[in-house]
Amino acid sequence: MQAFEGGNLITFVGPPQAGKAQPHRTPVLTPTGWRKIGELVPGDLVIGGDGRPVQAVAVHERGIREVFQVSLDDGTSTVACGDHLWTVHPHALSSRTIDTRTLRNRVATNKRFGMLPVVAPVEYTPAGDLPLGAYLLGLLLGDGGLTGDGVVITLADDELVEAVRAALPAGARITRKGSPRDKNGKLKYGYGIYGTKHWRATGTPPVTAALRQLGLHGHRTEDKFIPESYLHASVEDRKALLAGLLDTDGGMEGNSVTFTTVSPKLADDVRELVLSLGGCVRVRTKNTSYVNYAGERITCRTAYRLSMRLPYGNPFRLARKRERYDDHAKNLRPPNRRIVSVEPEGLDNVRCITVANPDGLYVTENFIVTHNSTSMLLMTMPPRSRARSRCPSALK
After folding, report:
1. In this structure, what CATH number is given to the domain that contains residue 81?
2. Taking every annotated instance into account, which residue ranges of this chain make up the domain DOD-type homing endonuclease (predicted)?
């Protein structure tokens, strides 16, 4: 067993009964993305419940243990052994740390018991500069056609046209495609994003070049996705990206912020984006269709509808959508995630980690906030501090 004491890396062996652990295959969130818990070593940084990087001061192999699938009300889940710890909020103003087996019994008799803390907006370590502004990319993923040499975007709001124009990189321009009205006198909302005359003579239009760099160029609506560099960008850039997505393909339905797409990968990426910002999200699917001129019903692609709650207020930039959000603001609830079931899942090879945060929380798969091994943490504390500590797993 290894840990840090007095700034030095030390090795020791923990007690066999200290089994707070997850399977080696379980993803754990780090400042640069997801890593399997089985790959972590003492000194690695993971993300704590406060969204900030925190050092894993110890890791310990626990061997083969019985594990349980812990499922949440948003359809996500993770796996942990029976002695693994969870900090839950059974009441509005209190919290309690209990093990998986105790949690299973309590959730079975009280469906409102297993309320988990929601991670604060995650502070990643960005890999570098983004080739396109995050808000502009959000608009393009929402309403952009990315398959041609130039980019086509459908915008019904002059406000968004000006937002695109302001966000374009040097050497790019936006222009209306053809006449502003069709032959029946209806307004046309198609715009093209091209290079300036000088840029066309010297190379690929800047926005097209950036999309190629990101691997997005040539992807149709059903294949769109968020590049990893944007999913792991700064908090402000991720908020801007989400605003662009919502200003195009988002809205308010009742008291929920929603986003709809026919791309399963984009739906999954937006879900990750929302969770990384400290929100909660539910994904539902809907099979859509229409009746053609011959009276035949044509089945369309499956639509993915995301309903989300965010911790930072109005997520829109488009004025008319901001106003609609504000009209509902008093009825909007803060993000929350709740454990709904804990079920046996056989045996697995597991290990535990200890993080340096006083609350002992770290972020496991699906942005689920869980607890480290308190018994391991006690071993790294000075004897006097250890005597004053009480193992949370004793709280029932």
Report:
1. 2.170.16.10
2. 136-279
The kind and range of the H/E element at 256 are strand 256-261
Tell which residue, 383, 315, 379, 369, has the closest CA to residue 97: 369
Closest alpha carbon to 251 in 323, 146, 164: 323
Q: Measure the CA–CA gap between 298 and 305, rounded to whole angstroms.
A: 20
- Of the three residues 313, 331, 349, the one that is the final residue of a domain is 331
Contact 157, 139 (CB under 8 A): no
Question: Which tokens go with 3?
Answer: 């840990």
- Considering the domain boundaries, does residue 354 fall inside one? yes
3-state secondary structure of 196: coil
- How far apart are the C-alpha atoms of 220 and 210, rounded to whole Å? 16
Q: Are 361 and 289 in contact (CB under 8 A)?
A: no
CA–CA distance, 278 with 359 (Å, rounded to integer):
18
Distance CA 10, CA 5 (A): 7
Q: What is the pLDDT of residues 150-206, one digit of tens each?
A: 899 999 999 999 999 999 999 999 998 865 655 555 556 889 999 887 666 667 899
- β-pairing, 297-309 with 280-291? antiparallel
Q: What is the pLDDT of residues 43-69, one digit of tens each?
A: 999 999 999 999 999 998 999 999 999
> Which DSSP category does 246 fall into?
H
| pTM of the complete model | 0.87
Count CA within 13 A, CB hemisphere, residue 28: 33
Q: Answer whether 280's CB lies under 8 Å from 308's CB.
A: yes
Decide if 166 contacts 272 (C-beta within 8 A).
no
What would the pLDDT profile of 119-151 be if each residue is shown by its tens digit? 999 999 998 899 999 999 999 999 999 998 889
Q: What letter would DSSP give residue 180?
A: S
- Are 189 and 227 within one domain? yes
Closest to 378 measured CA to CA, from 396, 351, 360? 360
